[in-house]
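Each letter names a residue; the fold follows as tokens. Both lines appear below:
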Amino acid sequence: MTETPQHRPLRTRRLLLRPLTVADAPALFPVFSDPDSMRWFGELHRTQADTEALFHDYTVGPYAAGARQWAILPAGGGAPVGSLSLHRMQQGMCQTGYILVPAARGRGLASEALAAVLTHAFLELGLHRVEAKVDPDNIASLRTVERLGFVREARLRRSFPARDEWRDEVVFGLLAREWLDRAPEVAGRIRAAGASP
């Protein structure tokens, strides 16, 4: 995806988030083809071409106009350790999703990356609401969005197809005014967990 002021790299203390490209597929195919990782995310990728096709669709293909996709990299350099998106952007609202390789989990990196993207979404993109849908059994992701101040709003029954079954989704919402009011408090929580917004 071509970098624009609305889709640019974002930096945190430990991370660089840069626009995702199809060239990131080899580094991230292992997580998209991992059954344990994809039980929360969606369709298992059988080949690297599946990952390339997904990245193409959301960066230069049919969904690109309504999405911003970032590759998550260590600030000091190296291969991507995950990806994060804002998608289904319309009328000031969007959804967010993220995935990390197993070795990058448990260190607050998802919270750190998402905090940077939320600030960008509300201050630079002018969005007024970001929504997250989380599997109720995905405890780590539930904690991530709750730590960042998302409000639990609903539970959708059997609404998400994953691994040949229909899964429930918990719907969370975060408004711009809530994020901007809570940003210093959220930053403190992330630092306490070993990360930085």
Observations:
- The helical segments are 25-32, 35-38, 48-59, 109-123, 139-147, 176-192.
- The first strand starts at residue 10 and ends at 11.
- The two ends are 24 Å apart (CA to CA).
- The chain has a mean pLDDT of 91.
